[in-house]
Design brief:
The structure is a single chain. The chain has 5 helices and no strands. By secondary structure, the protein is mainly α. Helix 1 crosses helix 5. The radius of gyration is 11 Å and the shape is globular.
């Protein structure tokens, strides 16, 4: 796995963990929701821009995408 792929994996994992805490749900529930809705693909595909944003901004972005 390249450094960039590893960085993206860590970022997506970070987002799942933060979303779990944000929603007060289990890691499995958060992971299932974000994978099943394509949010993890969005996070991975837009890593270069998104990883520079704050945790709060990321949670708002994820919530907004879930509500579309």
């Amino acid at each position: 796995m390249s450094k960039q792929e590893l960085d993206k994996s860590y970022f997506v994992t970070f987002c799942i963990e933060q979303f779990k805490n944000h929603r007060g749900i289990s890691g499995a529930e958060a992971s299932e929701l974000l994978f099943s809705t394509g949010i993890t693909d969005y996070l991975n595909d837009n890593f270069e821009v998104l990883h520079t944003q704050s945790r709060q901004w990321l949670m708002e972005e994820i919530e907004e995408r879930l509500n579309q």
